[in-house]
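Hi Q.,

Before the meeting this afternoon, I wanted you to have the adenosine-5'-diphosphate prediction in hand. No need to reply - just skim if you have a minute. The sequence and ligand are here:
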Amino acid sequence: SEQEERTLPASRKLLILINPFSGSGKSVRIFHEHVEPMLTEAELEFNTITTEYAGHAGEMILSMNLLDVDGIVICSGDGLVYEVINGLMKRPDWEAAINIPLGVIPTGSGNALCLSALFATGEPNDVTSAIFGIIRGNLMDLDICSVITPTEKLYAFLSVTWGLVSDVDIESERYRFLGERRFLIGTVARIIGLRKYRGRLSYLPANDINGGEDNLAYNFTPREDVSSSAAECDVTSLSQHQAHIQENLNGVFSKRISGNFSSLGPSDHLLPPLSSELPPSWKVVEGEFILGCPVFLSHLGTDLMANPDGKFGDGLMGIFYVRSTTGRMALLDLFGKMKDGSHVRSHHVEYVRAYAFRLEPDTSQTGNLVVDGEKIDYVPIQGQIHKSLAKLMCV
Ligand code: ADP
Ligand code: MG
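Predicted structure with the ligand bound:
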């Protein structure tokens, strides 16, 4: 692969964050029984902090001295990883901060990051493999998706879920004591009480021909001497405008930040402001859906390979959506097929690879919108992938 090979030094200082609330509350015990003895044996230096409340880890990350840590290890589920990544990205020195290697010990009820990483390296999905990955300290690239809402900018590593999947994410919270089985039970309950969700889903499709997203900057305008009809204003005609686009990229537009946010974080050069129209190179689907989800990793959970083509550091998202014409039995069947990713071959599912997305739910309905497992307001959102922004100790 094109992954940059990098290994951390054998002697390094790790900051270990333990969430006593994650999963069925077993993080502290797993740390003392399994993680601590192995790290001590490997002669790694570490400080542990047990989080005291939701948001605690994020606050610590904001004020931490970067020179004090060579890596941050998270003993929790995806929720604490999300908190840490957003804390790192909120720092004025975000570019250096997000480069600090992250490790995960999967003690939550949702451990999609660790699961996807172990799947990618061919290791068994268990705590011991995760610890060995951290001790070896080889780094894997992790893409981060900026997520822009009308009021804030977030950073996601896992998914944006909408419709049935986000309802399950939120409604199954109260079955947390069941661990990961909460997603199965929640899904069956939601298929029985099936609903439809109205909205518009847009995306900037990935293409291999022109070698990269940089050719698709939103501020692109076709030159007059070349056809600019909607049908032709696609990747082919874009490639003819390389010079023109480069001019734009180097110019004032590429420095513009989408929305009214502070200038922290990478610039989202593929995204017009949320209230502006999208360029013709984007694809748009609208109407009634059962679900629609941009996914940044291969797996959403155990036996849920939502994005089978997803690779670490590929700079792409997989978007899958199901229209409202699909019935309950077909949905149950699709859910089972997610185990090996074969749901994407079903005629009930559309599966595309993209650089960026926009999701505009019909806000006259109620519904859930979930970013990396965390509920946000039911409002229009958009996002773009930032290739290999973070690093994972996992190989
Ligand atoms: P799980 O996969 O079990 O949901 P997560 O890692 O996702 O585990 O954590 C769930 C939530 O717990 C996260 O939103 C995190 O911010 C929050 N959290 C972290 N520390 C604590 C704590 N000490 N008490 C309560 N909640 C916490
Ligand atoms: Mg990816």
